[in-house]
Design goal:
The structure holds two protein chains of two kinds.
Chain A: E1 22-27, H1 34-47, E2 52-56, H2 64-73, H3 78-102, E3 106-110, H4 113-122, H5 127-133, E4 142-147, H6 150-161, H7 179-201, E5 204-207, H8 212-227
Parallel strand pairs in A: 1-3, 1-4, 2-3, 4-5
Helix pairs in contact in A: 1-8, 3-4, 4-7
Chain B: E1 4-10, H1 16-29, E2 34-38, H2 43-54, H3 60-84, E3 88-92, H4 95-104, H5 109-115, E4 124-129, H6 132-142, H7 161-182, E5 186-189, H8 194-208
Parallel strand pairs in B: 1-3, 1-4, 2-3, 4-5
Helix pairs in contact in B: 1-8, 2-3, 4-7
Classes of the chains: A alpha/beta, B alpha/beta.
Chain lengths: 268, 220
């Protein structure tokens, strides 16, 4: 098992060798199916005996309320916004993700630095500055990027919510006065930014246009490969809860041999 | 850039705020276009940091980032526009405060410099230097109740607030001294009397900045 690493400068006071758990990141736009997939993965992992912790964006107690307020008023400059999000991210990394990894949990992160970077890149932020800003982030064990066609995405959002979201449509960028048109152009730019990040940070692209169960099977086999050798051998349990390891174990757990026996994926 | 930027730096108790206040009075009295900005004073960010500080939720990284957010908000909203509009901008503490304090807290110096890479280096940065006993004496004499982060209590230097403050301030001073050359800080002897220091500060400003250029235009 390889030791965890930071992208650049280490996080003050954190010894990566202590981080025994796994960090799995799901990236993708709103309505790409992220939270559904994370819910299913989480259930499946727990049924297989892994303790699971969640993480996401804008969840820290530190700045989330202020961010929420500022977003409504649209009073922050792009760079101030970047820094608020970065504070929120590091707060969660240090107070949630790192302790969970120390305790041997599998952390399923509902988005990570890549969404934050892509959003800022689209808004003209300096890429080198962004890379440095997030250089103290932990390198995840795997990053899965759910890619959904813009047409599908718009349809899902409109079906579920009846309207498009101001920020997810990039209305602050003034791309078009037409919300749908702005949404299409914004999502296209986001995808291009993600592509750049994908090339340098090396994450895996998942076709999110497929049905929920199909995407889930795909993700499960990938996650299984990442975790193999790291957790208890749970057999090929696809979420029907038949194994005995359904309890959330306290603290760390010992690796038991090669686990699920799947071929080991190249570490990202 | 039509404007000029002047910053003061130094330990708590070095007298830098007094000095920049007197500079401000002097320049406004002469009718120059002046703007003043203070470290950690953005209203927007204050709301966020207050809670974090009170509950001692901040780590070195988030402590550094919330101050960077505050700085950025002031920089983009006030400092940079003022410089572009041809003002003399005075800053009580600038990015060097973060470079010094956050480095003591364990943040990577290169990361910190990148974080603030968008900020202009001031035309003049005064660093008010005095022996540690002097600055500590000034602070501890007048304000016995130290705040948690101010005293560096998050670093576990000592369980005693005052002792922790002493050690923390000593380390911050080391960082400042290291930056004197890197950023060409103008070192001021902060043990001299207030008027003596102010006289010297005004001399230096007058020498290095073409002040008459900043006179407010005559009204029509």
């Amino acid at each position: 098992m390889t030791t965890k690493q930071f992208f650049g400068a280490p996080l003050p006071g954190v010894d990566p060798a202590e981080l025994k758990g796994s960090l799995i990141v799901i990236e993708g736009p709103d309505s790409s199916g992220r939270s559904t997939q994370i819910g299913l993965l989480s259930q499946w992992l727990e049924q297989n005996g892994y303790a699971v912790a969640g993480a996401g964006l804008k969840r820290s107690t530190l700045v989330a309320p202020v961010l929420e307020k500022a977003q409504k008023g649209n009073v922050l400059s792009p760079r101030t916004m970047s820094l608020f999000y970065a504070s929120d991210f590091y707060d969660q990394l240090e107070n949630r993700i790192v302790p969970a990894l120390r305790a041997g949990y599998v952390v399923l992160a509902d988005r990570y630095i890549f969404t934050l970077m892509a959003r800022d890149m689209v808004r003209g932020a300096d890429e080198a500055w962004l890379r440095s800003l997030y250089s103290m982030a932990l390198v995840p064990d795997a990053v899965y990027h759910l890619v959904v066609s813009t047409g599908n995405l718009a349809e899902r959002i409109l079906r579920a919510r009846g309207s498009l979201d101001y920020w997810e449509s990039g209305m602050d960028l003034g791309l078009s006065r037409d919300w749908y048109e702005s949404f299409v152009r914004y999502q296209r730019r986001l995808r291009a930014a993600f592509k750049r990040l994908e090339d340098s940070y090396g994450f895996e692209r998942i076709n999110g246009n497929r049905s929920i169960p199909v995407v889930n099977r795909d993700l499960k086999s990938r996650v299984q490969a990442v975790l193999s050798g790291k957790g208890p051998a749970g057999g090929d349990n696809h979420g029907n809860g038949e194994t005995g390891g359904g309890r959330k174990p306290e603290g760390e757990r010992k690796p038991e041999g090669d686990g699920l026996g799947a071929e080991k994926r190249a570490e990202a | 850039m039509p404007g000029k930027l002047i910053a003061v730096e130094g330990l708590d108790g070095s007298g830098k705020s007094t000095q920049i206040h007197l500079v401000h009075e002097w320049l406004t009295g002469l009718g120059y276009r002046v703007s003043f900005s203070e470290w950690n004073s953005s209203e927007l960010v204050k709301a966020a940091t207050k809670k974090g500080k009170k509950r001692q939720l901040l780590t070195p990284t988030t402590f550094s980032l919330v101050h960077a957010t505050d700085f950025t908000d002031r920089y983009e909203r006030q400092i940079l526009p003022m410089l572009k509009a041809g003002y003399l901008v005075l800053c009580d503490r600038y990015i060097f405060t973060s470079f010094a304090r956050d480095a003591v807290r364990g943040c990577d110096p290169v990361w910190l410099r990148n974080l603030y890479s968008f900020a202009r280096v001031p035309d003049i940065t005064f660093y008010f230097h005095a022996p540690l006993e002097v600055t500590l004496g000034r602070i501890l004499a007048g304000r016995p109740r130290l705040k948690f982060f101010e005293a560096g209590m998050d670093l576990d230097l000592s369980p005693d607030l005052t002792e922790s403050f002493r050690i923390f301030q000593g380390r911050v001073m080391e960082q400042y001294l290291k930056m004197v050359e890197e950023f060409r800080l103008t070192v001021m002897d902060a043990t001299r009397t207030i008027p003596e220091q102010q006289h010297r500060v005004r001399e230096i400003i007058s020498e290095r900045i073409d002040l008459p250029r900043f006179r407010t235009r005559a009204r029509a």
